[in-house]
Each structure stands twice: as structure tokens, then as C-alpha cells.
Amino acid sequence: MDGSRSPAHAGPLWLRVFLGSSPTWFKMVVIVCLGVNATAFAALHAAIGPQAAGFYVGWLVLAEFIFFLAMALKCYPLLPGGLLAVEAVVLHLTSPERTYAEAHHNFPVILLLIFVVAGVAFLKEWLSVVFTGILFSTRSKIMLSVLFCAAGAVLSAFLDALTVTAVIIAVCKGFYDTYHAYRSSAKDHDEAELEQFRAFLRSLVMHAAVGTALGGVMTVVGEPQNLLIAHVMREVLPSALADHWTFVGFALRMGVVTLPTLVVGLLTTVVCERFSLCG
């Protein structure tokens, strides 16, 4: 029975309980990040003072949270993100009162993490079907790249862009695992063809990732900072202008910039594929 355990259920009890069913390697990364933050803060505190140490470690915590958000399919990001927030208070990077005030102010972003990111995790199988259908819908590499870029833009306009990117990476990894398993069972080990297929999938991931960036800036929910911008604008503007920063209002006002950018991005995809500018 022990040999049939999954990696998430291996190791001591405390590690199996920590962060639930997340992979063991991800749990270890979270533990290492927490340890690195404390060590870096102690070292910088002694070397350059508490204020400068808090500044640099604060940026380190921010980078780690972005990484945890990108790994949303491995672990619900509020769990490791909450550990980072608690550690920031323990290290006196901020105060509990300031944490409460910022959490209250940024509550729309927290709701985005609770509902949209979790929803993308539940929609993973459906998104896999969507991108699989796109992959087999055309034999033109140019059209395929444009479709992946456009699909990434559309999905990220209504879902969190970074989480959509994580789903796309997971889908392409599934393509590669299936192909590699078939080649292994057929005892066909043409490394050149395998590398060509890997390069093909990498290009699709990059086009889709660019698409998520193009679509993510178009709506309020596409990027967390969009929510903050709209939230602040509704607070500081008169009530007559506050409706300009709803979901529809944000899209209409930002469309002056985002729609031409989307068109240029899709045309750039065609040019890059047509002339093989990136390999």
C-alpha cells in the first residue's frame, strides 16, 4: 500500500497535512520561501537597518505571491498567500491594523482570488477541451497561433489572466505527456522529432500567454490591478462619474487603447509566424 501513495501523501504526517493535497515539491517551496524571507530580513536588518530591510523583503514577498498565484492549479493561492501575509506581520513588515485596512481596501481583489481563480481550477477540464479542439481544428501553424492568442485574450478578459496562463501550460503539458507516452509505447525514440514537437508546444504557449496579456487589460477582472484602479476611481470620483468604472464602463473607456493593442498583437503573431522571426 505504501508504494501506491501519491507524492502528495508521502512523508511525515505534518507535511501531508500542510496545504492539503498539494504536491510535496510545492509544499517544500512554500516552506523554503518562508525561511528565506525570515533569514533575508534578519541579515538585512543587521546590515542596512530595519526600514531598508523591510523594503527589500517586501518586494521578495510580492514576487513569491505572484509565483504562488501562477501555481494556482497546484494549490489554492489564498493558502500560501495567507502564510506570506502572516509572516509579514510577524516580521513587522507591517502592522495588524495596516493589514486589516489594506485587506478591506483590496477586498475586490480578494474576491477575485476566491471566486475567479477557484473557478478556473474547476474549469480546467473544459478549457482543456477548448484548446484541444483548437489544436485539431486547423493544419495551418499561422492560423493555429492566431487562434491560441485570440482564445487566450478572450478567456483572460473574463477570467484571471495569470491563472488562464497556468491552465494553458497544463494543457500543453498534457499534450506532450500523451505524445511522449505513445512514442515510448511504440518504441520510437526519434529525439529530433520529439524536440520539434516540444518547440511547437512552446510556441503555442507563448502565443497564448501573449493573448492573456492582451485580453487581461481590457476588463476589470482580467488583472488584479484593474480592480484596484476601478475601485479607487469609484471612491474618489463624484457619484455621477462612478458608473463610468463598472465592468462595461471600464471596457469602453480602456477600449481606446486596448482594442488597437489587441489588433496589433494579433498582426504581430502573424508576422512572427510568417517570417519565422522567433524560430
Structure characterization notes:
The chain is mainly alpha-helical. The chain folds into two domains: 2-105, no CATH class; 121-274, no CATH class. It is 77% helix and 0% strand. It has helices spanning 13-17, 24-48, 50-70, 78-90, 96-105, 107-122, 124-135, 141-158, 161-185, 191-216, 224-236, 239-242, 247-274. Helix 2 (24-48) runs antiparallel to helix 3, helix 2 packs parallel to helix 4 (78-90) and helix 3 runs antiparallel to helix 4 (78-90). It is globular. The chain starts with 12 loop residues before the first helix and ends in a 5-residue tail after the last helix. The mean pLDDT is 83.
Q: Proportion of β residues?
A: under 5%
Q: Give the tally of structural domains.
A: 2
State the share of residues found in helices, binned by percent.
over 70%
Q: Which stretches of 5+ consecutive residues score pLDDT under 50? A: none
Mean pLDDT: 83
Distance between the termini: 48 Å
How many helices? The count is: 13
Tell me, what's the shape?
Answer: globular
Rg (CA only): 22 Å
Instruction: Describe the largest sheet.
Output: none
Number of strands: 0
Topology:
Elements: H1 13-17, H2 24-48, H3 50-70, H4 78-90, H5 96-105, H6 107-122, H7 124-135, H8 141-158, H9 161-185, H10 191-216, H11 224-236, H12 239-242, H13 247-274
Helix pairs in contact: 2-3, 2-4, 3-4, 8-9, 8-10, 8-13, 9-10, 10-13
Short description:
The chain has 279 residues and is mainly alpha-helical. The protein has helices at residues 13-17, 24-48, 50-70, 78-90, 96-105, 107-122, 124-135, 141-158, 161-185, 191-216, 224-236, 239-242, 247-274. It has two domains: 2-105, no CATH class; 121-274, no CATH class.
